[in-house]
Specification:
alpha+beta, 5-stranded antiparallel beta sheet, globular
Length: about 350
């Protein structure tokens, strides 16, 4: 079977790096439709709905050639600062990187550094975590050497009247950036389950945990934590995760260079942060709705008080809340109950 190898060269302010995708014929055709030939701006490709081309100097030139599918996967390498820095093309995110072999939690370390006054864009990356955390106080399975665990310190001078919008959209736009980076680096179609889970198929491949606080000089900060299941095998998961979680390798059959995935994620995240800071959430919301697989599905929402609500996920509202309409409809003629969910555990139901 023939596969197309797509080589994308990214040039930004004198630095350059390449991204290669191995695509089947159908995916190759869709990729060609997404990437105008021969040259286009990265922002237009990655954030086509946001039309951010006017504020970026990044360009992609795409060369296409065919090769035989050899089914051979290259062994993956440990993360290194040199490899990360050689492919980094951001203005601020990742200019200071703390790479750890073992850590209790990248978010915990990032919060501590933020309290101490560390600069905006500082990134904590670890090969493994002993106390990785997910949303709703869940533990994040963090085996060594195969996945991506990172946290980013964000310090932005957001006006007080826009702070609620910023905090509401931060986890959602982060999930959007992560999904785009996986799609570009691993050529895998990724959906987002509200609010910030990344899905391959209907299985979870990554998640986001955002925290906020105030530093030593009373300056507000946010910490964005991300965990991505990259090169592991689902059989290595704890038994309770094997049916609901997956890895990029499990779904594509190919290893991913984690440093390339990290730098692509930082690039996409920075574009989203700039967009939200300078223009507000309107176009981010449009992009998120297009990526979100929860919209239009019947869902079961477990609320913070433990109560459950079943209904049809209708849309994402301007503040990032999920609007869910009661299903089945009441039989006594009453109008259906409507929930605007800000925090909830969502399960997609099969209908």
């Amino acid at each position: 079977m023939k596969k197309a190898e797509v080589e994308v060269k990214v040039e930004n302010g004198g630095s350059a790096y390449g991204v290669r995708h191995h695509l089947c014929a159908a995916s190759f055709r869709s990729f060609r439709q997404m990437v105008p030939d021969p040259v286009c701006s990265n922002a237009r490709v990655t954030w086509s709905v946001l039309d951010c081309a006017r504020r970026t100097s990044t360009f992609l030139s795409c060369a296409f050639r065919e090769q035989e599918d050899d089914q051979v996967t290259r062994p993956f390498s440990p993360l290194s600062l040199d490899a990360i820095r050689n492919t980094l093309a951001t203005q601020a995110l990742g200019h200071r990187i703390e790479l750890r072999d073992h850590i209790d939690s990248t978010n915990r370390e990032a919060v501590a550094l933020a309290h101490a006054g560390v600069e905006h864009g500082t990134v904590i990356v670890a090969e493994s975590q002993t106390e990785g955390r997910g949303r709703l106080s869940r533990q994040w399975f963090s085996p060594p050497g195969v996945n991506l665990y990172c946290s980013i310190v964000i310090r932005k001078p957001i006006r007080h009247d826009r702070l609620a919008e910023w905090l509401s959209w931060l986890p959602l736009l982060t999930a959007l950036a992560a999904a785009e980076s996986i799609e570009l680096v691993a050529a895998a179609g990724v959906a987002v389950k509200w609010p910030n889970d990344m899905l391959l198929g209907e299985r979870k491949v990554g998640g986001i945990l955002c925290e906020s606080g105030t530093g030593a000089r009373s300056e507000p900060f946010q910490v964005i934590g991300m965990g991505l299941n990259v090169n592991g095998d689902r059989s290595e998961f704890p038994e309770d995760l094997r049916e609901t979680a997956t890895t990029i390798y499990q779904e594509t059959g190919r290893r991913v260079e984690r440093h390339r995935l990290l730098t692509q994620f930082l690039h996409e995240l920075e574009a989203c942060l700039v967009e939200c800071e300078s223009r507000g959430s309107e176009r981010i919301a449009l992009a998120y709705r297009q990526r979100c697989s929860t919209i239009g599905k019947h869902v079961k929402a477990t609320l913070t008080d433990g109560k459950e609500f079943v209904g049809l996920a209708e849309t994402i509202e301007p503040d990032g809340a999920l609007r869910v309409i009661q299903r089945p409809l009441p039989t006594d003629g009453r109008p259906p109950e409507i929930q605007r969910l800000r925090v909830a555990d969502i399960i997609h139901l099969r209908t």
